[in-house]
Amino acid sequence: MTSPEELEALIETYCNKRCLIVDSCLGVGTQGSVFSVCTPKGIRHAVKFHEREVAYIRERDIYFRLKELDLNDVGGHEIPQLVAYDNELLAIEMTIVSPPFCLDFGGAYLDHRPDYSPEVWADWRKEKSAAFESNWPVVEKIIPNSSNMASTSLT
After folding, report:
1. What pLDDT, in 10s, does the model give residues 13-35?
2. Topology (CATH) of 4-95
């Protein structure tokens, strides 16, 4: 886990490289920390600093695929667009989106699904349906094959 001091150093290094000003912390999760930054022209972006390289690479590559496919939304839900990335700092800079949106790709996989047991998938589905409540049917339409989790790839 990155210490607050280490995270502050990462943010400062990234912002200095990109001539950005940190605005605020947008959130902290299992994959990393997300900050709002401002460009010299006053445009706000989000920068996610990842805890683990494997998660960073997976999420970065999803943004590459989204860009390659020229996808800006899924089912009317806006997708953040890749602005910049830094392999050394494990940072992804993206546009900030407004609801409804598809936001976090930290747990997503390309071209294959994670090797989880049927029980883990059932628990995941139960947890997500509870979290999304009445919006769960819309979420199921966005996630490929979420009803049986036969595939979770983005192709």
Report:
1. 999 999 999 999 998 988 899 99
2. Phosphorylase Kinase; domain 1 (3.30.200)
